[in-house]
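Field: sequence (string)
Field: structure_tokens (string)

Example rows 1 and 2, in order.
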Amino acid sequence: MKRRWLAWLCLWGAAASAQERVSFGTWALDRTEVTITQFARHAAATGVVTQAEREGGGFEYVAGWQRRAGWNWRQPDGTPPTSDALPAVHLTHAEAAAYCRWAGGRLPTASEWISAAYTEQRRAPPVPWVRGRSYAWPTGDSPAGANTSGPDPWPRAAAAGQTRAGVNGLYDMGANVWEWVADAQGEDRRTMGGSWWYDADQMRAGVTAWKPAGFYAVYIGLRCAYDQPSRPH
């Protein structure tokens, strides 16, 4: 009986993981940004203490970069979060990559991220999405529904699944928080998509943003990619 119960739990966990990812044939991508809950499992399993925790707090830009005491992935704004489904932030590039390895994946490349964010690839996407079409924004024909600095319901970061689902059924590929990807340029690493601090223009595919690999701030999170056998999507 115990073995059957454990086997059921494993199958349930695999199914839940599959539902949380979007497949692109030979690889898949997290449907949402990695959340506080997800990173907490990683921390509990590995004992990781992030650089923001060790150094007293992460950064926020207010007339220059300012360290905020007590701000880290556990409490992004220095107080207990309103939801553990908020994105995990205040993570360096190496910490983001380590999480993805622990989760069985890796950071996506910029080209993978762009393909997933702007070109609809589902076999039978729901209306109004059109298979094979590339959109100006990760949210479609307009940036409406994204969490930017413009008028919207979210004064700061939004929890997973709160904003409008976009191209390929992905959430927050534009805005909410910047996302680390694998691309390197010297000591810098690329981030994608913009954040709630910026206006919608940072969501466009042509934006190129690089940050020091060891940097961490309230605006920077991640999502993971996963290599998988080719299959329809």
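Row 2 begins here:
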Amino acid sequence: MKIAIIGAGFAGLSSAKVLKQFGHDVIVFEKTPDVGGVWSATRRYPGLRTQNNKDTYCLSDFPMPKSYPEWPSGQQVQEYLAAYARHFDLEPLVQLNTEVLQAEPVGESGWVLTVRDTRTGQTSRHSAEHLVVANGIFSEPFIPPYAGAAEYQAAGGVLCATSQFNDLEQARGKNVLVVGYGKSSCDVAAAVGEVAASTTVVAKELIWKMPRKILNVLNFKYLMLTRLGEGLFPYIELRGFERFLHGPGKAVRNNMLGSLQSVATRQLGLKKLGLVPPGSFERIARSTVSLATDELYDQVAQGRTQVARECEIVRLLAQDGRPAAQLSDGRTVYADYVICGTGFRQVVPFFSEELQKRLTDERGNFELYHQVHPVNVPRLSFCGYNSSFFSPLSAEVAALWTANYLMGQARLPSRDEMLAHVQKRLRWMEERTEGKHARGTNIIPFSMHNVDEMLGDIGINVSGFKRFKQWLMPPSAKDYQVITKRLLQRQQSGAAGARVGRLQPGD
């Protein structure tokens, strides 16, 4: 098939590589000047690095360089993806500086895409038989609509998202407010705290953080990036040892989480700093699992950075001709920069309103079977719409799911059964995340559950022994090379003619 892919991050590039391997004619559209998605130079904020160690944040057949540190920087991840594109000869397939303005379905024959060259403004049209949306769930930052923003900016204040703050020198000697308490906010605050005149983190809600090394010794990957770590949190359908952890063995599970809470509180000095989050440590996996930015806590202890907890910006303004912000604790503070780590909009801007309605339910949640397959729209797949601990692996498996589907090999239930399955998951996700489920795209911490479910549809998985090892050791992306090899063997052996699933591509 002729396949168009929108986005050239982990999801887009792994889709291009996989679908090319299966004989498809692939083109990738990327609006930035480089590959990388969230790791693009256009979006890298100071202090950006991975939450995963390098061995769990790579694609199955292309390990990260041995020279990389345990937690690679944003620049290193982008360079890794650029090397991946070169290694698999994907560069000729990727059109950089090309924004997709509109993607329209054309009956049952496929899609027509209208694209724009971001350098010249020239537009053109492209056709495809199948479309893969890999634009990312972190592609459009959300900045709160603060009252007084125009007055603030007229006084010289800068209001931006963390992903739009790309030059640390801009903050040197300035008064900076960083809004939010997630990973990007804390990373930026720590970097800014080294050069700014003043740094204040405005945190509406404190969340639990996991130290990168427990007791400064044990890498957190051995606790949280394993099937056991995933199993500490109740999945919608418990299976195997999980039934024990949330049944007869619940006291053991509770003690493990309680011990982690005690260690994190003590190691980060949260009591002394007045930064103990509300609730139990179990809430760390409510919608994400955020690693602690150790430098930030050091700066708070030294008095170089402040954290205004349970606090919000009420309005932005100019005070004495200078940019400032009024906070909900009654203070008005000068703020040359207000940098917002306040989340993202999960949007597909190149789809019409009518098409978006077909993709979502009445609450605006994406109705995607196993985070890949839109039940109500033919000739379309999503990749990377499963926010995961193991984003590269999740994206690669989603690409393989699509390749298998296009072979007519997907083991799928009926349309009505898929819709019922999706809706049940969405209601559960919404409840367990307290509404922070990113329109149904947030699957953390259940990354390997999602991988297993996609591979279950394909009918190929790594060995039971390797899955058993993953209970105590982080999954190795390298182990999953076998999926591509065996799926290619299936295609080459002529098994594509044996229809296993009930649906065919385009139905």
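free_text_note (row 2): The radius of gyration is 23 Å.
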